[in-house]
Amino acid sequence: MSSTGFHILTKPIGPICNLDCKYCFYLEKEVLYPDASKWAMPDDVLETYIRQYIEAQPTDVVHFAWQGGEPTLLGVEYFRKVVEMQSKYANGKKIENALQTNGVLLNNAWGEFLSEQKWLIGISIDGPREVHDAYRVDKGGQPTFDRVMRGMEVLKKHQVLFNTLTTVHRANSRFPLEVYRFLRDNGSGYIQFIPIVERITQSTTQHGLSLVSPDFAGRAAVALWSVEPKQYGRFLCSIFDEWVRKDVGTTYVQLFDVSLEMWMGMEASLCVFRKTCGSALAMEHSGDVYSCDHFVYPENKLGNIMDANLAALADLPQQKKFGADKNDTLPKYCQECDVRFACNGECPKHRFATTPEGEPGLNYLCAGYKMFFQHVDPHMRYMAEELRHQRSPANIIQALRIQEGQAASKPTRNQPCPCRSGRKYKHCCGRA
To answer: Which is deepest, 59, 142, 157, 391, by most CB within 10 Å?
Structure first.
């Protein structure tokens, strides 16, 4: 058993997918596994993984995460087998499952299974039709929006809990409110934004890869579909300004929730904003374990679970150094930044830029994150203070209405606050 616990993003079908999203960084990982006849994770590997992963977790609840590629290509029966194996080795622990999907293959059989087993689903959708179909196309280059929406309706019909996973790229980053309102009005109320940033080398690496890691020494250019740093900041700020005035407490945006954690002085629940990383690994269909989902490169391979115990692989000095390097290699420019407590250099995958002083290791999205975190600071301070006094962060909505003159009448300092908190206005929304 691991004393600290770790998380595995499991790829039971590797990078095999029924879509051909133009920005996908994982499709080309197929070249690392040239035997095309062995893409489904074999039963012996699957069972070994499930047993070792449950045994390694020090908690009473064990979380499994299934991704791809597209895991639904394996069919419902494959995952019924997964559930049976989990029950066999649970040993009194509660098992929870999450599955990420493009939604195209979801039907009533899937809906019944996911509802029955209470799986959490992450469904990938990039916004309204025009921006979703800009990059998310099938193998024939055809749009997928209508099929994804049908899949989402299956989840709603069967009352399956789901999040929307939205990549932010060159096409949709210029339409922040259109994207946010579409997701808010059509999704589940739980929204995740994932910035797309990739670099393309002029010639493939010795392993046949074109999309390269941040420490790649050769010539590489930022892919045209990547979101621009300041545009990413504007995208987040625009959405936050609407959310904080209308939707706090009813629509949950992962980045905003994690930001509030950090303003509360807590460790971020999202690995990219922690001081160090290394506890979120990835495992391929073959049983090969890598340092991270974003670092599936031969140099980041830790081993195979059929040759070494999963917990031992997660505890290797190589993996510990990988996690510590996030903080140890942070440029001086970042160390002295006023939002370092929130950003911590973000994901190492994006740290290929240089600081104004020429020091390497700056995050490509630095300007966008700095814009966002500075923009939300006063609002986060207010909501954090509400939480510290065991009050709802949603009180900020009324506070901003009053501050911005949108309330019917502004009370005097000693009158009861119109947000119905029971406190005087000067001690409540008047502080905003």
So the answer is: 391
CA separation for the pair 417, 432 (Å, rounded): 12
What is the C-alpha to C-alpha distance for residues 17 and 35, in angstroms, rounded to an integer? Answer: 16
Residue 293 annotated in active site: yes
In angstroms, the CA 384 to CA 379 distance is 9
| Cross-strand bridge partners of residue 137 | 143
> pLDDT by residue for the chain (432 residues), tens digit each?
544 689 999 999 999 999 999 999 899 999 998 875 678 999 999 999 999 999 999 999 999 999 999 999 999 999 999 999 999 999 999 999 999 999 999 999 999 999 999 999 999 999 999 999 999 999 999 999 999 999 999 999 999 999 999 999 999 999 999 999 999 999 889 999 999 999 999 888 888 889 889 988 888 999 999 999 999 999 999 999 999 999 999 999 999 999 999 999 999 999 999 999 999 999 999 999 999 999 999 999 999 999 999 999 999 999 999 999 999 999 999 999 999 999 999 999 999 999 999 999 999 999 999 999 999 999 999 999 999 999 999 999 999 998 887 555 667 788 777 655 667 777 776 765
Whether residue 200 contacts residue 144, with contact meaning beta carbons closer than 8 Å, is answered with no
Q: What are phi and psi of 175, to 5 degrees?
A: -130, 60
Burial 82-109 (b: 16+ CB within 10 A, else e): bbebbeebeeeeebebbbbbbbbbbeee
Active-site hit among 293, 307, 325, 338: 293
Instruction: Spell 304-313 as b/e; 16+ CB within 10 A means b.
Output: bbeeeebbeb
CB of 427 closer than 8 Å to CB of 399:
no
Please count the CA atoms within 13 angstroms of the CA of 38 that sit on its side-chain side: 11
Residue 156 amino acid letter: K
346: Cβ contacts below 8 Å, ≥ 6 apart: 272, 273, 363, 365, 369
Q: 20: which DSSP letter?
A: -
CA distances in angstroms from 170 to 132, 178, 225, 370, listed in the order given: 12, 15, 5, 19
C-alpha span between 66 and 59 (Å, rounded): 20
CB 180 within 8 A of CB 172: no
Residue for token pair 């929006």: 145
Cβ neighbours of residue 5 closer than 8 Å, sequence gap 6 or more: 56, 57, 58, 59, 279
The phi and psi torsions of 282 (rounded to 5 degrees) equal -130, 145
Report in angstroms the alpha-carbon separations of 212 from 243, 302, 376. Answer: 35, 19, 33
The tokens of 12 are what?
A: 């039971």
- Which residues sit opposite 19 in a β-bridge? 138
